[in-house]
Amino acid sequence: MIKGDKKPILLFILSLAIFAYAIVRRLGVELPDDAAFFLRYAENAAQGHFWVWNVGESPVWGASAPLFPLLLILPIKLGAPPVASIIWISVGLSSVALAATAILISRRFGYLAACSFVVLAALDTPTMFFAGSGLETPLTFALLAFALFVLIEKRGEWAAGFAMGLLAVHKMDLIPVSAALLVAYVILIRRIPVRAILIAAVLSAVWYGFAWTYFGAPVPNSFLTKALHQNDFVNIIDWRWFGSTVYYRFDHWVLSVLALIGLVRARKNAAPLLTFMLGLLLVHLAAYTVKHPFEPYDWYCMPSLYVLLILAGVGVANLGDVAQKLAGSKGLVGVVAVCLLLAVVVRSEIEFQRADAKSRQNWLAYVEHDRAEAGRWVNENTPQSFRVLTAWGNPAYFSRRYVYDLSFLNRRYESGDLIKKYRPEILIFQNSEQSTPLTPDQYGSDYTAIKIFDSAFGSGEGNYFFTVYARKDVVPQIHDVVFPLKTSCVSTQDCHRYSPLEAERPSAQRPADLPVDSVSSEYCHLDELNHEPFSANEKVSRQNTFEFSGWALNGSEKSLPTVLFVKFSGAAGTFYASARSRYYRPDVPAVLRLPSSLENAGFKTKLDLSGLPVGDYNISILVGARAQTQECSAQSIHLSQ
């Protein structure tokens, strides 16, 4: 850096502000569930118990990134709220690490590459979301930036050794990245860095030796559980998860294309740097393709995405250089080309990134909120001596009770029925697919549901709700228990919308939920019969069972229906059957130019028509409103024997 040159300082300050703003814009109202695992350990450590899950119990190495909770101890001890501490340390550390990365990129590839990195990283919602959500990603960014600093600034063996050792300690999946840094450093200095290797080995030996002695195992308990016992879980992702998340999903294909262009520029006189970055990309792609988790832990992808963003920024700058050469000018052609390209990327990506941010924030605002509220309610309404059995971080942390961790990430694996074995006073569970807030799961005759948290269910986020159960003999000791349980369901049909459809026989009796006065409506359509497009005058046999689906709205109020029926009108009479609403149909508000809040306008019904006489029937959709029934004529069928 030229003495008196203020450009690096200005770049750092501007980058810091942009990253802090971009991260804060992605924050939600609650912590992601796994972040609460870290917070439980950090708060126990701040209270003088060091690394324990349950105070007074043998220590367990549960959170797999041991250095991150240590950063939280000081602010918590100084009186800062724990949740605020983990969020603002995450925001601050990520902003500094990413801004420092921009400075390093400018030193090696120029200011256009650095500015492009800042724009692309700040635009990417997954990167900014996990940078501030309370998981280990901020420290990962900081240690990767430190590794780049060692290579780009050609630092000595002490710095290299600390970088390798800290990477190896921070997370087990960064041990091969530490090895890639060693290879890169060997290429950089053209000899074996004995001192650096010794420093890294000492750091690793000290931590893993301590872990073996203190925790009874040299690897995290969470790693053992995931490696040995999660194979029995139902996988909701497959081997393609990691590669698609990093290189294609969330519009990352744009980054991949730009990164390939960046490699053309970066390969010149940058063998150590490319060895490190490509080594990271390759080992993580191989590791998480061969052994993927059972559900998408997308923050595992952040080291690779960090490298991809750097290469993409270099790629943008390379295209600027090409434009400069084609113009045959030494003016601002390259700068203008880079600005135009970034403007095109931002313009094409911004709506998707906003939608992605909104989706993640909704998850925190509803699903994670329900989880956390279940824990808070237990803390406020049950005796301190009560023990809780649950499988999630938020209820475990916010209940502030002795917790049997059924995920076994923070408890050594035990087979068998832990409910019967330990008989805890409180259970906090997520629903199964078949249950509803009106019919929560049952866990034997000893337990009863005492509280439902289902804002996610009511908001349309999906079939998610959390139930607090109590052992029946301790219910009198618990406050705020009211039967029947309150739910967010606006109707019985609404509450059962995620249950498997069961065949219903239409009835000749008009439903009491439908007002007598009727008006015509155009806000409905019957689309499919047994998952095939519905054709006019469809001929069907009454010996079969039929599933009808379509969409319907309360036309007068432009709202989702709470009471919905299908009517069959024919010479033999009129028959009614209920329909289940609130199925996802985002095309409906888009076509009708209505608010996106009406995207759950779909309905379904499964009918047994064997009780209807043979003949022709007109099918209508009936929406029950406040004072009248809105009737929408849909299709006709001929019912044969």
TrEMBL record:
Membrane topology: Multi-pass membrane protein
InterPro entries in the cross-refs: LipidA_mod_glycosyltrf_83 (IPR050297)
Keyword NAD listed: no
Transmembrane helix found in the keyword field: yes
Main location: membrane
Subcellular location: Cell membrane
Residues spanning the membrane: 86-105, 135-152, 158-189, 196-215, 246-264, 271-290, 302-320, 332-350
Keywords for the protein's UniProt record, in alphabetical order: Cell membrane, Glycosyltransferase, Membrane, Transferase, Transmembrane, Transmembrane helix
Protein name: Glycosyltransferase RgtA/B/C/D-like domain-containing protein
Species whose genome carries this gene: Paraburkholderia nemoris
